[in-house]
Amino acid sequence: AAPQHLTRDRANYTTQALPPSTVVITVDGELDAANTTQFSNYIQLRLRNAEKLVLDLSGVTFFAAEAFSAVHKVSVQAAGQNVQWNLLTSAPVDRMLQICDPDHALDELRQAG
């Protein structure tokens, strides 16, 4: 399927569905308090029909603590729906994960972008 693009509040979202049921969401730009709800809603909507999710944040240049909460919510929802998922990160995302995830709960999902 062709990628879908959306630009909102200093962040660009691209979604690509890969048969049979993998969803790749790529986010570039800034994720902060102003757009975290949009970010969370965008992912939650696309997670519904996925068996696998790749959340690519390797192009994120700013990542606030609120965005970490949204990623954690994805992790909980994915586990509840038996969706396998991976997280690709950038340096700003890695820094916030070190602060907000000191127990490294998301490490097994994370790959440096």
Structure description:
The chain has 113 residues and is of the alpha/beta class. The protein is 34% helix and 39% strand. The chain contains 3 helices and 6 strands, in the order βββαβαβαβ. It has a 6-stranded mixed beta sheet with strand order 1-2-3-4-5-6. Helix 1 packs parallel to helix 2. The longest helix has 16 residues, at 65-80.
Quick structural overview:
This protein is of the alpha/beta class and 113 residues long. It contains three helices and six strands; from the N terminus they run βββαβαβαβ.
**Mean pLDDT across every amino acid position:** 86
- Our count of helices gives 3
Shape: globular
Which structural class do you get from the secondary structure elements?
A: alpha/beta
Total strands: the figure is: 6
Q: Give the strand order of the largest sheet, numbering strands 1, 2, ... along the chain.
A: 1-2-3-4-5-6
Low-confidence stretches: none
Query: N-to-C SSE series?
Result: EEEHEHEHE
- Beta-strand portion reads 35-45%
Major sheet summary line:
6 strands, mixed
Helix content: 25-40%
From the N-terminal CA to the C-terminal CA, the straight-line distance is 23 Å
CA radius of gyration is 13 Å
Protein traits:
113 residues, alpha/beta, 3 helices, 6 strands
Topology:
Blueprint: E1 4-8, E2 11-18, E3 22-31, H1 36-47, E4 52-63, H2 65-80, E5 84-89, H3 91-100, E6 110-112
Parallel strand pairs: 3-4, 4-5, 5-6
Antiparallel strand pairs: 1-2, 2-3
